[in-house]
Amino acid sequence: MDHHARAADMKPKLKDDEPLQLSPPAPFVPLDHLMQQQRPPLPPRSLDVLLPGSQLPPFLSKTYDLVSEPQLDGVISWGPAGNSFVVWDPSTFARDVLPQHFKHNNCSSFVRQLNTYSCRLPMEISIRLLECAALVLEGFSQGSC
Amino acid sequence: MDHHARAADMKPKLKDDEPLQLSPPAPFVPLDHLMQQQRPPLPPRSLDVLLPGSQLPPFLSKTYDLVSEPQLDGVISWGPAGNSFVVWDPSTFARDVLPQHFKHNNCSSFVRQLNTYSCRLPMEISIRLLECAALVLEGFSQGSC
DNA sequence: GGGAATATTCCC
DNA sequence: GGGAATATTCCC
Asked: Tens digits of per-residue pLDDT, B89-145?
């Protein structure tokens, strides 16, 4: 499996595009910038890690978990930056995935819900932490369903 | 060929069960009583017969058709007077029938909808015609789900 | 996209 | 039972 890390992978090595920097010390970085960098490239398995105890609307937590499912990466997955998601296979998504998580199989109904929570077409969604640990969802423009 | 109408078909004829009545005239009967008597003992297959062109809420027309299904008489059927319905097998009704017609399998959700349209527990419903051809649903007290 | 009607869930 | 929150459909 790809989860088995080989010894070579665990030993830090220099890369051509990442020169070793020993000095001077890193300049001051604002906290929110640090948090941006600390955000994992792939979102965690469950929103509970990000927002423990929060009462997220069911649609948002279900969508988040659904997008995070590794088995569905060919159909729907997080975008490159981990702050958006993309539906790669809208037909399969509508026919097979939606009914497993919602009471319908219509892309339009899914999009309608995204709109309700301030997302926009196309099927991308942004999730990021705020100071108050609230969840914000923002839309982008790329692709469609 | 069918364009030849036979003489026998065009001539009105007396039937054994329809004696010719010349006198005296039938006594006066109020219109609503006539309509009561004219209501068929078993409801028609579709509400369209009763309320042609009416825009009935989907829940009511689906429930009406569902109750009218002969195959479901062992699970749900019209009551003796044809103006109420009874769920004879709530378990089967919830598990097998509800998901075929609605997006859930919960008796409570079905009852909630009945309540919305002025029905009451238990699962009986009254459907009758008014002068304005509107539909009225009334609840009775007998049995439960 | 989103308003509005209808449906489903949740909870008192 | 029914108010209210959320979900789904319908339609502009």
From this structure: 888 999 999 999 999 999 899 988 888 876 654 444 444 332 222 233 333 333 345
B106–chain A Cβ distance below 8 A for any pair: no
Q: For position B76, which CATH number holds?
A: 1.10.10.10
**What is chain B's percent helix, strand, coil content, to nearest 5?**
35, 10, 55
Share above pLDDT 90 across residues of chain A, in percent, rounded to a whole number: 14
Nucleotides of C under 7 A from a protein CB: 1-4, 6-11
H/E element holding A145? none
**A vs B: CB pairs below 8 A:** 3
Structural domain for A81, as ranges: 56-145
User: A109 near A102, Cβ under 8 Å?
Assistant: yes
Q: How far is A137 from chain B (nearest CA, A)?
A: 28
Q: Long-range contact list for B53-62, CB < 8 A, 24+ apart?
A: B54/B133, B54/B135, B56/B135, B57/B117, B59/B113, B59/B116, B59/B117, B60/B117, B60/B135, B60/B137, B62/B101, B62/B102
Our count of domains for chain A comes to: 1
Query: Cβ of A103 under 8 Å from any chain B Cβ?
Result: yes
Residue A86 sits at φ, ψ, to 5 deg, of -130, 135
Q: Does B45 touch chain A (CB under 8 A)?
A: no
Determine, yes or no, domain membership for B111.
Answer: yes
Q: Residue B143: how many CB atoms within 10 A of its CB?
A: 14
CB contact under 8 A, B104 and A104: no
- pLDDT value of residue B88: 82
